[in-house]
Structure formats: structure tokens, C-alpha cells
Amino acid sequence: MAAIEKALEILKDGEWHSLDAVIEELKLTEDVVKKVLSFLAEFNFIKFDEEGTKVRIDNEFQRVCME
């Protein structure tokens, strides 16, 4: 659960973050970070850019849950 919370903490600013930056910040393997981010995206908590190389928090989720 800590990885999910930390990922949301990183993304809560609403800006786009590269996958590499998130991986570095979480200090987890690329595979684990991708699984965490895929889980969050599945439930529309975050969004990937069209290339799948950047992520940001979903605006609606941020508005409702992160304030």
C-alpha cells in the first residue's frame, strides 16, 4: 500500500511526470512501478500520456480526493 500512496503523493501536483522520474522517486523496480501505475490508471486515479511515457493524477480524482 505504501507504494500506491507514495505514487499519488508524487503525482498530486497535477503535472506530467516521466516514468523514469517516478521510478527513481519511488526507489522500486521498473516492473513494480509500472504495476502500481497501471492499477491506479485502471481505476482512473491517474492518466498516461498518449505515448505512455508520462503520468499525472486525474483532474477529477485530484479535485475530489486530494484536497
Protein architecture, described:
By secondary structure, the protein is of the alpha+beta class. The protein has a three-stranded antiparallel beta sheet. The model has no long low-confidence stretch (mean pLDDT 94).
Summarize the structure.
The chain is α+β, with helices and mostly antiparallel strands. It contains 4 helices and 3 strands.
What are the salient characteristics of this protein?
Arc Repressor Mutant, subunit A; 67 residues; 13% strand; 3-stranded antiparallel sheet; alpha+beta; 57% helix; globular; 4 helices
**In sequence order, what are the helices and strands, one letter per element?**
HEHHEEH
Helical region count? 4
User: Strand order, biggest sheet?
Assistant: 1-3-2
Instruction: State the CATH topology.
Output: Arc Repressor Mutant, subunit A
CA radius of gyration is 11 Å
Strand coverage percent: 5-15%
General form: globular
| N-to-C span | 20 Å
Number of strands: 3
Helix content: 55-70%
Largest sheet: 3 strands, antiparallel
What CATH architecture do you see? Orthogonal Bundle
CATH superfamily: Winged helix-like DNA-binding domain superfamily/Winged helix DNA-binding domain
Q: Round the mean pLDDT to the nearest integer and report it.
A: 94
What is the count of structural domains?
Answer: 1
CATH class: Mainly Alpha
Show unreliable segments.
none
Structural class: alpha+beta
